[in-house]
Amino acid sequence: MNKYLTDGQVEFFHQNGFLHVKGVFTEQECVEAIESAEKCANGHYTNYLDMHLRSPVVHKILTGKKTCDIADDIFGGARGIPCGTGYFFCKPNNPLEHGSVWHQDNYAPKAKFGAYLNLGMVLDDADASNGSLKIIPKSHLLGDLPCKPKPNFEYNSEGVLVQVAPIGNDCEVPEDLPITQLEYRRGDIICIHAQLVHKADKNQHPTRWRRKIYLDYIKDGEPFWPGWTAKRRLLERYDSPKYKGL
What distance in Å separates the CA atoms of residue 210 and residue 1, rounded to the nearest whole number? Predict the structure, then answer.
């Protein structure tokens, strides 16, 4: 039984590899997430792969009922276990943000098809002008595509992890499928299949930010690669007897 999504939404996701869910979070919830991440970043606006370990607010969102229920629905009622985040500080012309190349999220966790899920929590309205997601619907049905992986992050001279190249693995782009530019608003969720081919250009807008939290889930009991920089690990979720938050 679905807890959050309708049967039609779940079917659309599995057919197309993505789902746009509008108005999941309130304005206040989004502002709290922004303010908490701002405090943690302290002006260092790279993309953070561990914001849930720095920010109690982001940790609560990752392990909370709304997002876990969406993951459960997409996993067909199996529990979606939170395991990581990526917080993108895409302010206008940010020198520490380089956008992304065409990629599939599964190049990093290397999970079984359909076992890994990325939920993008939208913190700023976005369209082509500030680099919203470009996706190739139905590309997930092709499975893991050939790619050219490269390091996306390095430690700088102060020992801080920073983005040094566009995110992603330069995967093979299917030529027979059309590209769709998404538009979304603060508080929305974009559900992304691990094998969906997608990218986001660097934010070149003179004034508009594009902040987003990517929330990672693995189907309960399925293996995945934790990664050297992302350091994904299984976390207790809101309905676990051991859950204590951050």
Answer: 34
